[in-house]
Specification:
Length: about 900
């Protein structure tokens, strides 16, 4: 497994920032982080004419360039470590303009430099290197599936990187990255091709800068973009959207009879609703397209026709009957199970496309143009362009109709990749944005078109936005990673895929999970203990890799892996704060021939550092954290635990030094508790940082050894669902405002839950069951109980139906009120404050509406699961797992686990 080693230098990362200055005409200078000046220029090329002479006007941070045909206004603004050059280019002529606009930068070069044009990082030798457009790096099993290039042209040396680039989600179909070496210098070029009709204008964004390199390599460049344009790398719906906060059912909810408690205990919040339509290209299901003869095979009940344990039998269903059945499924279960409506918007049933969508058929010779049975199983499908033209209009019409008819949480978008060019009539006017040109004519890239479609989807219900879950690249809120972790292809393209995903959640869709037939090829010859030993290593690798890449697994990787399920709350919290590319931490005490899994999440006070030790013995190490690489401030850390923790921090010249012991084959997390905006004049002090946590109250404390007072703002970390009170030496102070930190200060942050008014012990002591483990409580609803209250009550009943079914508790109905020993009082009314609390033999669960009540139930049930646990053994999801279960017995296929995030619990399980 390829990993990059840090390069230890002497310079901190963040305070050293470059600056771009316009110098007249179309030229600029870049004052680099090494206090050297690099010359650059703005350029415009017109097709068939070459680079154009420009008239220019510079005024401070503003520049205007142009000629008789166009005018390009630009403004420079420094954003973190990069300068952002935002502009508007206008066609002031009466003709169509085919332009390439961009920037060039002359930079010094050294031996052993690297060039990164957005795909693979390459040795920057004496030969020119270039990346032209989006065709290039295969990332998916389907022909034509490509990684989108990171929007950059950069030269990376041992101590700094020179950067040109653009926006991650720019609506564009063609960008260029070029490295042209000279004797002791090189020219970097980043540009994009555009098409402007007469009178049309286009917003433009470029980035330019220089950042120091101390750790890793291209990760420094990626992090600079994350800092300069965080909106490009974050979910476009709220990151607090509950569907973004879990794992993936992988059809066990959509295709099979769904069991909510089963999915909840797996932390599943989403499923790929595949495929709730009869005919590819007719997602809504219109009467005029209903009756047809499929080309691949006759209608039958295949995988794509299964739905919640039933089926869509198109041999019998009329169009009206289909709509009623589909609506019933989504109305009853769509939001509960996160049924994400499957749309494969670049494929259409062949007869339908050739009869009414001829203007939208893609003919790019470099890509697959026809497939058989991909979406429905019975259709032959051909590739079509999803925006503009007749097909693009039909897609928008269908998506709008689906949103109006069904109670959808979001969409699951399959296929659609960069590097697929459409030259048809639909892109010959400016109705379609992001058009480009080449020697074949004007075109639009397929992924560029899909990104516009995804924006349209999110615009349809602004008060309750629909998420987009995308297989592969694109402007989605969630990324589906469709491959096996144990496949070599994963490591060839996952780094770039992760860079592009940024802080968005990634979920793995695996066909075989552990690929046991290849990972343990001799499994049939092994005893149970021998098999479990080998599988355990795979399970730990999967767990540590999920933390390393910020992704969750489906049931294929989670079933039987008890340690994965134990660690799921921490993994999901890491993902919530967002995966970051740069880990500015030096590690000492690590043997040269050894490696660690590692990752970083969040920034500043919300930083979480992950390390995984793959070796059999615990490993003592020392971490030196360069705080300047975390976004600013000086962080104080401690181990992230569920109950309590403590750690000594040594602040040495602005860096945080931590002595740690990494457990064997378990995730180890360090969380920042506080961020200080400045330090004492000495730049050094020690601090003992501790935490004490419960579900209703959390306290972080930092006892400083500073010998003199100093002025700093103190910001405690974010704890979702809690309000915080910050104190210094017992006095309440404002968060994030400058104040005097006295010598030997004690800083404390006390968090109070916005939901739980009782602690964990009080809830676990509540008598849900009697001495014989039978359900012993009754649910009390208001006399005029509304539907929301009844639905929350059903969730509680379902909990004990599940525990009874799997013999976690005795089976049986909840007792009548007169026979119960306790009561759960449910209130869901507008204006009701959310609360979960225990008072004697009564537990109160209150909320203002059903969605809040549902989430409050989930929070309560996570505590109840500690008392009534259920660990799912290996499940059958491939021919090999069926054989493994047949040989060893399913009940035996659960891996051992330990309570690695608790100091107060027995460790070995």
């Amino acid at each position: 497994m390829k990993r990059f080693l840090f390069i230890l230098g002497l310079l901190s990362l963040f305070p050293l920032s470059a600056q771009v200055k316009f110098t007249g005409k179309n030229a600029f200078t870049l004052e680099t982080v090494r206090q050297k000046s690099c010359d650059g220029k703005i350029f415009v090329i017109e097709k068939d004419k070459g680079e154009l002479p420009l008239t220019c006007r510079a005024d401070g941070n503003k520049l205007t360039v142009g000629n008789d045909d166009f005018c390009w206004d630009m403004t420079i603004r420094q954003v973190q470590r990069l300068d952002r050059i935002s502009g508007t280019i206008r066609n002031i002529s009466k003709r169509q303009l085919l332009l390439e606009i961009g920037m060039k930068l002359n930079v010094p070069r050294k031996k052993n430099d690297f060039f990164w044009g957005g795909f693979d990082v390459q040795d920057a030798g004496n030969k020119p290197l270039k990346r032209l457009g989006f065709k290039g790096k295969t990332s998916k099993h389907l022909a034509g599936g490509l990684c989108v290039p990171f929007p950059v042209s950069t030269l990376i040396s041992s101590d700094q990187a020179f950067i040109l680039g653009g926006r991650q989600n720019e609506i564009t179909s063609y960008t260029v990255s070029v490295y042209e070496p000279g004797k002791n210098s090189a020219v970097l070029n980043y540009s994009q091709r555009i098409v402007l009709e007469a009178g049309e204008e286009l917003k433009t964004t470029f980035f330019c800068g220089s950042v120091p390199v101390r750790f890793d390599r291209e990760q420094n460049v990626v992090e600079a973009f994350y800092e300069a344009s965080p909106e490009e790398f974050s979910p476009f719906v709220s990151k607090k959207n509950p569907y973004l906060r879990g794992t993936y059912s992988q059809y066990t909810a959509w295709s099979n009879p769904p069991d909510y408690e089963r999915e909840r205990r797996r932390y599943a919040t989403l499923d790929w609703a595949y495929t709730p339509f009869k005919r590819s290209g007719d997602w809504f299901g219109r009467p005029e397209y209903w009756d047809y003869k499929p080309m691949k095979r006759p209608f039958q009940i295949g995988f794509g026709q299964l739905c919640v344990g039933e089926n869509f039998d198109y041999r019998k269903l009329s169009c009206d009957e289909f709509h009623l059945k589909r609506k019933s499924v989504f109305d009853r279960m769509g939001r509960k199970f996160g049924f994400s409506f499957y749309i494969c918007t670049v494929w259409c049933e062949k007869q339908l496309a050739e009869s009414i969508y001829k203007d939208s058929i893609i003919t790019d010779p470099d890509v697959t143009k026809e497939i058989w049975g991909w979406c429905t199983g019975h259709d032959t499908e051909i590739r079509v362009f999803p925006v503009g033209g007749s097909f693009g209009k039909a897609i928008k019409r269908d998506i709008k109709a689906l949103v109006d008819e069904l109670d959808l949480p979001g969409f699951a978008a399959d296929c659609g990749t960069p590097g697929v060019n459409f030259y048809g009539a639909a892109v010959q006017n400016n109705e379609v944005k992001g058009r480009a040109w080449d020697e074949k004519g004007i075109f639009c890239d397929e992924l560029c078109a899909l990104n516009q479609l995804f924006d349209y989807i999110r615009s349809l219900r602004p008060s309750d936005p629909l998420y987009v879950w995308k297989n592969g690249e694109g402007k989605a809120d969630i990324r589906l990673i469709e491959t096996e972790l144990f496949s070599p292809i994963f490591y060839s393209w996952m780094p770039l895929t992760r860079y592009n995903a940024g802080q968005r959640p990634c979920i793995m869709h695996a066909k075989e999970g552990y690929v046991l037939g290849k990972s343990i090829p001799d499994w049939e010859k092994l005893t149970l203990d021998e098999f479990l030993t080998k599988w355990h290593r795979l399970g730990d690798h999967l767990l540590l890799s999920c933390f390393e890449y910020g992704m969750t697994q489906s049931i294929y990787g989670n079933s039987g892996n008890a340690q994965m399920m134990y660690c799921m709350p921490e993994l999901l919290e890491c993902i919530y704060f967002g995966w970051r590319a740069l880990i500015p931490v030096a590690v000492s005490g690590l043997d040269k021939d050894k490696m660690l899994y590692r990752a970083r999440y969040g920034r500043k006070e919300n930083t979480i550092l992950f390390y995984g030790n793959p070796y059999e013995n615990a490993m003592p190490v020392t971490f030196t954290v360069d705080n300047s690489g975390l976004g600013g401030g000086y962080q104080l850390f401690l181990p992230k635990m569920r109950d309590f923790a403590a750690m000594k921090n040594r602040i040495v010249k602005g860096e945080t030094v931590l002595d740690c012991t990494l457990p064997s084959r378990k995730p180890f997390l360090l969380e920042a508790a506080f961020s200080l905006s400045s330090l004492p004049e000495s730049g050094s002090f020690d601090a003992v940082v501790s935490s004490k946590k419960d579900i209703n109250e959390i306290t972080y404390t930092a006892e400083l050894s500073n010998k003199e007072s100093f002025t700093a703002a103190v910001t405690p970390r974010e704890v979702e669902g809690f309000t915080v009170k910050l104190q210094i030496n017992g006095k309440t102070v404002a968060v994030g405002e400058d104040l005097t930190i006295p010598a030997g200060a004690k800083i404390s942050a006390t968090y109070t839950s916005q939901l739980f008014a009782s602690n964990r012990r009080e809830i676990l002591a509540f008598p849900f069951t009697d001495k014989d483990n039978h359900p012993a409580f009754t649910i009390i609803l208001p006399p005029d109980a509304n539907e929301a209250e009844k639905k929350v009550a059903e969730l509680l009943k379902d909990y004990f139906r599940f525990t009874g079914k799997y013999k976690i508790t005795a089976s049986g109905e909840l007792p009548a009120a007169e026979n119960s020993i306790s009561q759960v009082i449910v209130t869901v009314r507008p204006g009701t404050d959310p609360v979960v609390k225990v008072e004697g033999d009564k537990l109160y669960l209150s909320a203002s509406d059903y969605r809040q009540g549902w989430q409050n139930y989930i929070a309560l049930s996570r505590i109840m699961d500690l008392k009534y646990p259920n660990i799912v053994p290996m499940t059958i999801h491939s021919p090999t797992t069926r054989k493994v279960i047949g040989k060893f017995g399913r009940e035996n296929l659960i891996l051992p686990w330990s309570a690695c995030f608790e100091n107060s619990r027995e460790q070995d399980k």
